[in-house]
Amino acid sequence: MTTWTFKGPIAALALLALTACEGGQGIGAQAQKPLTAARMMSGAVILVPPSGFCIDRGSLRASFALMARCDTLGAAPETARGAPLGLITASFAAAADGDPLPSQGDLLATASVTRVLKAQSSKDMLLLHASGPAPSKGLSDVHWRGAARLGGHIVAVALYGPRDGRAIGPEGAVIVQQLFDGTRAQIDAARGGTAKTTPPKKGS
């Protein structure tokens, strides 16, 4: 059974990403440029962030990635495309045909969630609006988390944002859905061609 943890360098990046100046001098300004797509799970899945978000190269592993608004990762200001400040984690696991999605209990089991504000689901997706202890100072205790079946794999996602920020409101559901839809579309497209992406570091 897969344990759906939302690990990663959230605490280290949160305040820097969420308080980065609007001029594009964020946490990645002196590092390599962030990614707009990345091959995960040994190339089986191509992760596509929502509009205005990029993948932090330093976080990338075979089954894990952390995303933030592109300008807070050092990209040009215009790459933000009006997206709200936020941090997204994505964790992947292989899934055989017929394997169920993580349940609401699976998604919440390790998150110390105190209340589910809203839940929506379909055959291949579960999305929750929940509250619980924030993973880092500066982030709201209200956040989004969800799971979806994507190309023979299951991805579990969490979206955090600053208190009173747009990412923790209704717009957050749209952001998570964009990640699911964009990644699914890229997987489908890649079955008939080759997409250029940077392979992740080895690890979990």
TrEMBL record:
Q: Which residues form the signal peptide?
A: 1-22
Q: Which domain of life is it from?
A: Bacteria
Signal is among the record's keywords: yes
Q: Does the keyword Signal apply?
A: yes
Q: Which UniProt keywords apply?
A: Signal
Designated name of the protein: Dihydroxy-acid dehydratase
